[in-house]
Amino acid sequence: MILLNAATGSETTALTETLAIAEEVRQDIAQLKPNVVLETMRSWVPGLMAFGYRLLVAGLILFIGFRIGKMLRRMLGRTFQRMELEATLSKFLTSAVYVMVCGLTVFAAADKIGISSASIVAVLGSAGLALGLALQGSLSNFAGGILILVMKPFKIGDYILCEGMEGTVSSIGLVYTTLDTLDNKQVIMPNGTLSSSVLTNVTAQERRRLQIKVGISYESDLKKARQLLHQLFETHPMMMTEEPVVSFVDELAESSVIIGARGWVATGDYWAAKWDLTEKIKLTFDEEGIEIPYNQMDLHIRSEQGAQIPASNSVTKTEKRE
């Protein structure tokens, strides 16, 4: 019993001491905690204020920069419109200026909040290199489109010939140009091909020289035929009177005398005038007895003994052309 009381007393004393120590620690923590938090917060305040200031300045930079970009885009758009610049080129240039201003604004804002512009440039450079290698053909067409829009070798509505293709230009893009053919087919041509190949713009000038040649037989009246041809050209309603009509004898061929005439017509009237004159030449020559020869082959048949059959039995065969 005495031993039990002694043990209980020692445990009670130890528990009391532990509780006392815990109470002292609690009191120390209660006294120290507010001071530690306050000191920590006080140490954060300058940094937070500085970061908030930089963030505010960066926001202002973005706001002002984007507004300036939009103003420049509108101003350039109106300027290009007064200059009558191609709509596609105008849109591209205004967008490029806007993107450039916005990009510089983002770089300035990022630098203000502590993001290194060098790292951004490095990332964009690597991405641009990879994209350029992947899109070499498209970039070539894009560069060709810029050259076409700047140099203007043709415009919408022109009739062009290039690389065996021809048609009326219906649209000019930054990468492709669209042609409408005479039979109403649509041809999409890469601008890289158009800018680096020999190109013929049929409708670049307001007028075109129309020339027609026709062969007459050696038995026909050369002076009369030439006079009729000259008169048909000179009196045609689509022929321009600013320049004189010229008629000529072009060649003494094997079976015909080649005569011709040339004059000037409006570009839009070229084919109508050519077709109409061709028809009138044939009808007029037929009425006036001017023979337009065609290729012939005379077959002379001989007997088995080698004697030639008289000319009255000779056969004339006309070669037909497909």
UniProtKB/TrEMBL annotation:
Which residues does the UniProt record annotate as the domain Mechanosensitive ion channel MscS? 138-203
What keywords is this UniProt entry annotated with?
A: Cell membrane, Membrane, Transmembrane, Transmembrane helix
The UniProt transmembrane annotation reads 44-68, 89-109, 115-135
Q: How does it sit in the membrane?
A: Multi-pass membrane protein
Positions of the UniProt region annotated as Disordered? 303-322
What are the residue boundaries of the Mechanosensitive ion channel MscS C-terminal domain, all occurrences included?
Answer: 212-292
What span is annotated as the signal peptide, if there is one? none
Q: Name one GO cellular component term.
A: plasma membrane
InterPro entries recorded = LSM_dom_sf, MS_channel_C, MSC_TM_helix, MscS_archaea/bacteria_type, MscS_beta-dom_sf, MscS_channel_2nd, MscS_channel_C_sf, MscS_channel_TM-2
Pfam family of the protein (one): MS_channel_1st_1
Localization per Swiss-Prot or TrEMBL: Cell membrane
- GO function term, MF aspect, one: mechanosensitive monoatomic ion channel activity
Q: Into which family does the record put it?
A: Belongs to the MscS (TC 1.A.23) family.
Recorded hits in PANTHER family, A to Z, give: SMALL-CONDUCTANCE MECHANOSENSITIVE CHANNEL
Q: What name has this protein been given in UniProt?
A: Small-conductance mechanosensitive channel
Species per Swiss-Prot/TrEMBL record: Hungatella hathewayi WAL-18680
